[in-house]
Design a protein that fits this description.
By secondary structure, this protein is of the alpha+beta class. Helix content is 25%, strand content 32%. The protein has one domain: 2-Layer Sandwich (Dna Ligase, domain 1). The protein has helices at residues 4-17, 29-40, 114-120, and strands at residues 22-26, 44-51, 57-63, 76-78, 87-88, 102-107, 110-113, 124-130.
Length: 131
């Protein structure tokens, strides 16, 4: 598997469509950082890194649903792909979907949301968008 972030987003999207309570992702530091941003922005309830093997880790995510049993995540898409990287400067990251959505950006300050990147005046690789 080459793109662990795309795999993680697909697993989250599929679990939300099936209205599952939890899903399991393959661990990497970047996927863990993306999950951290999703938790900060309240798109997921919680996540936990689990050592299943001494050499393998997984991330268990608890998805979040509203009162009508609809997923909080309407759409989650990968922006930057292995064949075509997408970089944005700080001014391009001001808002997404009029503030209702979030772009997760990999910067030199770590993996952060677009509003934090705009406040810190840093740009970077746009990993994915969520709303």
């Amino acid at each position: 598997m080459n793109d662990l972030i795309a795999d993680a987003l697909t697993r989250i999207r599929n679990a939300a469509m099936r209205k599952l309570e939890t899903t399991t992702l393959v661990h990497s530091n970047t996927v863990e950082a993306v999950c951290n941003v999703l938790k900060q922005k309240e798109y997921i309830e919680e996540f936990k890194v689990v050592d299943t093997d001494p050499k393998k880790k997984t991330i268990n995510i608890t998805l979040k649903y509203d009162d009508n049993d609809n997923s909080v995540i309407s759409e989650i898409k990968k922006i930057s792909k292995p064949g075509r990287r997408v970089y944005k400067n700080a001014t391009e990251l001001k808002s997404f979907k009029n503030g209702y959505g979030t772009i997760i950006v990999s910067t030199n300050k770590g993996v952060i949301a677009n509003d934090e990147a705009y406040k810190a005046n840093v740009g970077g690789e746009a990993l994915c968008s969520v709303w």
